[in-house]
Amino acid sequence: MPDVKWMIRAREFVNCNCAYGCPCQFNALPTHGFCQAVAGMEIDQGYHGDVKLDGLRFVGIFRWPGAIHEGKGEAAVVVDERATEEQRQALLRILSGQDTEPGATVFQVFSTTLEKFHEPIFAPIDFEVDVDARRGRVSVKGITEGHGEPIKNPVTGAEHRARIDLPDGFEYSLAEMGRGWNKVTGPMEFELADSYGQFANVNLCQNGIVR
Q1: Measuring CA to CA, which residue among 30, 106, 109, 116 is closest to residue 67?
Q2: Other beta carbons within 10 Å of 66
Q3: pLDDT tens-digit profile of 149-200?
Q4: pLDDT at residue 1, rounded to an integer
Q5: CA distances from 172 to 14, 72, 169, 176, 202 (A)
Q6: Domains in the chain, please, with CATH?
C-alpha cells in the first residue's frame, strides 16, 4: 500500500486523435494506429498528505507511436503556476504515478508506457469545462490551445448526447462524449481537429476511483 494518501476531485476535458467514442475505452486499437492527446483538469478538492490541492489546474500532453499499451510514449505536464513548491511536488508525484497502487489510476498506468518525460512546465493555465454541457476550453500560451463541444447530428444539427459508463475504470466512472480541437506547439507539435472529446467528473485516490 502507498505510504502517502492522496485524493483529487476534479473536472476534466480530454481530446485525442481518435474517432468519437475512442476505441481505447473498449480495449480496441486506436482509430489511426497511434495516439495523441491533450488532457486538462481542474481540482475542486484535493490533497496529497498534508498538502491541499484545491483549485489547482494541470494539463497533460501525450503521444504514442502505436497503441498506448505498446509503450514508447512521450509526455509533458503543465502545472498551474499558482501552485506553491510543495503543491507542485505533490501534483508531480500524483501525475507521475508515484504514491499509487500499481494499475489503480490513469496516471500510474500511463507512467508505465512512457519512455520520454519532458521537464515539468509551470505556467498560467486558462481552463474551463462544463461536463453536462460537453463544453470545455484549455489554453497554455506557447504550449496548447484547444476547445471542446458537443457532437452534432449531421442531419438536423441538434446536439447529440452519448456517455461511456466504466464501472471498473481507472480514470472515471461515467464520461460525457463530445468532440474537440487542439493545436499543440510545445514541447511536442501536433494538431487535433473534430476528434474524440471527453468530459468527466473525476474522483481518484491512491487506490483508484473513489466510489
Answers
A1: 30
A2: 14
A3: 999 999 999 999 999 999 999 999 999 999 999 999 999 999 999 999 999 9
A4: 76
A5: 12, 24, 6, 10, 5
A6: 6-209 (2.40.400)
139 with 54: CB under 8 angstroms? no
Q: How far apart are CA 2 and CA 8, in angstroms?
A: 16
Average pLDDT in the chain: 98
Which segments of 6-165 does DSSP mark as H helices, in order? 85-95, 106-111
Residue length of the chain? 211
Peptide bond into 65 cis (omega under 30): no
Asked if 6 contacts 99 with a C-beta cutoff of 8 angstroms, the reply is yes
Residue 41 is placed in which grid cell?
483538469
Question: CA dihedral in degrees (3, 43, 124, 122; nearest 10)?
Answer: 10
Distance of alpha carbon 188 from alpha carbon 37, whole angstroms: 11
Say whether 192 sits in a helix, a strand or coil: strand
Instruction: Give the HSE-up count for residue 176: Cα atoms under 13 Å, Cβ half-sphere.
Output: 24
